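Task: complex structure prediction.
Instruction: return structure tokens for all chains below.
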Amino acid sequence: MDIENWRARIDDIDLKILRCLNERAKYSIEIAHLKKELLLPIYSPDREARIIQRLMDENSGPMSDDGVRRVFERIIDESRKLEKDILASQTNKPNKME
Amino acid sequence: MDIENWRARIDDIDLKILRCLNERAKYSIEIAHLKKELLLPIYSPDREARIIQRLMDENSGPMSDDGVRRVFERIIDESRKLEKDILASQTNKPNKME
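Output:
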């Protein structure tokens, strides 16, 4: 295989990751709606720490555990931004949920 | 569905993302080996910009395009770190490839 072949594989897997990220975002939005109903805060630091710890435990490499942590911190941060934006746009109030 | 059900779905999709990330990392390492043979630099800014632009073009939401960009910048950054570490450990020389 040459560089272009491996890059084509990366392009395929990136689309798969993109689909998973959007799927994940949909679930986060559902959770945001439920949290709003239940008057719970968007930010759940314990849940976020558990998510990241589990993924580091499940990691079989070649990514380092710290690399996994950094990528998922970014994913979770984006998910939180999205939830806040969506709830703010629905309530039409300033976004002060944290 | 309650919050716990949606969280279980997120946990499933996170494992899928983790598997994709490690698969992607394996391909990056293959590319790093080839680049080393061909004396090419690890850092390919044009390729990285194209990857991110394509994913933003393909993005159908609910993630924002900027969110997609930020997550993939992190993924690509981790992938570059890994390639450099692996090549540095193989050559046993200081890591000065960029």
